[in-house]
Amino acid sequence: MQKFGIIGEHLSHTFSPLIYNELFKKHGVNATYKVLEIPRDAFDFIVKDITSDLAGYNVTIPYKSKIMGYLESVSQDAKEIGAVNVVNHLKKGFNTDWQGFRKSLENVKLKGKYALVLGAGGAARAICYALKKMDIDVYITNRTRERGEKLAAEFNLRYGVPSLSKVALLVNATPIGMYPNVEEMPSIDLSRLSKKCVVYDLVYNPRPTKLIQEAQNRGLRTIDGLEMLIQQAILNLRVWSLDELADDLERNKNWIYESLEKVRQS
Ligand code: NAP
Predict the structure, then answer these.
(1) Which atom of ligand 1 is nearest to the CA of 101?
(2) How are the residues of the chain apportioned to helix, strand and coil, as percentages rounded to the nearest 5?
(3) Which of 10, 52, 62, 246 has the fewest Cβ atoms within 10 angstroms?
């Protein structure tokens, strides 16, 4: 049996096993996808052992940068972003976060001048990389100003908050609003956004987040993190040479929304 998994610190919120295990079952692939939690202070001692027999795996908070020191090679885009979120059987690391984000915006027409990214962590780095590739003018803002300014300088972006009426795309790349803190939302005055602004929340648990709900109440177009997660899963399956499953997921996504709803209600 082939083994896949996700390594990270606190993984109770992840939907990844549900997606991959369901696809393995449907396609009769003899494989399993497991959650592999690694405490921060144990990472350096056990990461090699935990991943040694995996045919491929995902990496999430807080190890997306740290894992790079344990791989045989890293793709150029992942090097530029400074984060790996998927590893193949040859221990090569890739970043499908930025590609998944870009793909999720493929059919979205942005109207306005700027994108405003909230956060400066691993996800924000991938988002900024994608937005640069898409030729969009980006502002970023972050709780720890110094970290935000560093990212802005590195990617040649602007730090701060532009006039909100000129923002075409607002992206929450922080965990604000993520389960169990479901009543929280980023402190951005949504009433000052243009009616054409698209609000994108990378958080997908709960669904909808408070940010998405408030944006919808104001009639704004919204995209939630599940869309990026699915696009990224399609790309991850290709990294693992499971193209048939990737093609299937590309054609049929609705079952994921339904399965997740069932999990949430159970
Ligand atoms: P990370 O590297 O830990 O970075 C978190 C960022 O959020 C940092 O900039 C941090 O600011 C900021 N932040 C954290 N808590 C905050 C708070 N209470 N108030 C204000 N700012 C806060 O995490 P990440 O990997 O970038 O992930 C960020 C979020 O995106 C997570 O919720 C993750 O689940 C989600 N995500 C979703 C997808 C998807 O496919 N949908 C993919 C990747 C990530 P400081 O610099 O001040 O610490």
Answers:
(1) 40
(2) 45, 20, 40
(3) 52
Domain spans in the chain, listed from the N-terminal domain onward: 2-96+227-265, 100-225
How confident is the model over 165-189, as pLDDT tens digits?
Answer: 999 999 999 999 998 899 999 999 9
CATH number of 100-225: 3.40.50.720
Question: 31 in helix, strand or coil?
Answer: strand
What's the distance, CA 22 to chain centroid?
20
Cβ atoms of 240 and 261 within 8 Å: the answer is: no
pLDDT digits (tens, 9 = 90+) for 48-82: 999 999 999 999 989 999 999 999 999 999 999 99
Q: Which residues are catalytic?
A: 64
Task: Give 212-239 as a DSSP string.
Answer: HHHHHHTT-EEEEHHHHHHHHHHHHHHH
Nearest CA to ligand 1 atom 41: 225
**CATH architecture entry for 2-96+227-265:** 3-Layer(aba) Sandwich (3.40)
